[in-house]
Amino acid sequence: MKPTSAGERPLSELIHLDRGIIQVLTEYEEHRLRESIQNEKNLFTLNAEFLLADFETAIKGLNTTIKKRGEIICTLRCKRREWDRIYRCCRHEGRP
Asked: How many other C-beta atoms can be found within 10 angstroms of the C-beta atom of residue 68?
């Protein structure tokens, strides 16, 4: 768990999010997430699966769609289950 400033609660107490994700957030991503929580924004976790051959086009299209409704706070590569697929997990805030 990342150290927090004096009086600042750990993210794990503020939101139900996998500990592994919290540990890899950059300082900026953690700041954006804390700000979204403080401002009571809707938060969503999105898991998307793409074929390796279509990855570039598919991820650009998904990002464009998400950005129309909110902010992408972080994008992480998830564990691959098959050799020809790439998995992306996005955490974003915005309107459903």
From this structure: 9
Tell me how far apart the alpha carbons of residues 22 and 46 are, in angstroms, rounded to a whole number. 15
Report helix, strand or coil for 94: strand
Tell me: the pLDDT tens digits for 81-92?
Answer: 554 444 444 445
pTM (2 decimals)?
0.69
Q: How far apart are CA 11 and CA 84, in angstroms?
A: 34
For residue 94, with 0-12 CB atoms within 10 Å meaning exposed, 13-18 middle and 19 or more buried, which class applies?
middle
Distance CA(87)–CA(52), nearest Å, equals 9
Q: Report the Cα–Cα distance between both ends of the chain, in Å, rounded.
A: 30
In one-letter notation, the amino acid at residue 70 is: G
C-alpha span between 72 and 63 (Å, rounded): 8
